Amino acid sequence: QVQLVESGGGSVQAGGSLRLSCAASNTRSGYVIAWFRQADEKEREGVAAIDSDGKTYYADSVKGRFTISKDYAINTVHVHLQMNSLKPEDTATYYCAGGRTTLYELDGDMYHYWGQGTQVTVSS
Fold first, then answer.
1. In the predicted model, is pLDDT for residue 12 greater than 80?
2. CB burial of residue 2 (10 Å; 0-12, 13-18, 19+)
3. Burial level of 5, CB count in 10 A (0-12/13-18/19+)?
């Protein structure tokens, strides 16, 4: 079974940077790993995704500020989300998710495996 464990959340002032990481184990070829976020009293939002070939996709709200990447260890894929020029509206719980879906969907219902989430707080 696919397991996802996030790390790297925290608090930062507007304009600052944070790097989130997701350790994804037992993934298979064809899996897409994505980052989603959910702020209080708001719907879940897809942020960025990366497929098994390394192709990436970003939501318009983060394009040019966030970068998704990955590297490999034995039996584990580490997917990173480098977040620069952070804004207060980026404040949310960030989740790593995995599934056999298309890169450009960023639809949470298409992802079957989820991490526990990590909090990101950006103060003005």
1. yes
2. middle
3. middle
* Cβ 96 vs Cβ 4: under 8 Å: yes
Residue with tokens 């039996």: 75
Q: Are strands 76-83 and 66-73 parallel, antiparallel or unpaired?
A: antiparallel
- Nearest to 62, CA basis, from 36, 43, 42: 36
Q: Identify residue 50 by its one-letter amino acid code.
A: I
Contact 111, 99 (CB under 8 A): yes
In contact, 43 and 102? CB cutoff 8 Å: no
Contact assessment for residue 96 and residue 78, using Cβ atoms and an 8 Å cutoff = no
Reported as a single tens digit per residue, the pLDDT across 58-103 is: 999 999 999 999 998 888 999 999 999 999 999 999 999 999 999 9
For residue 108, the 8-state DSSP code is G
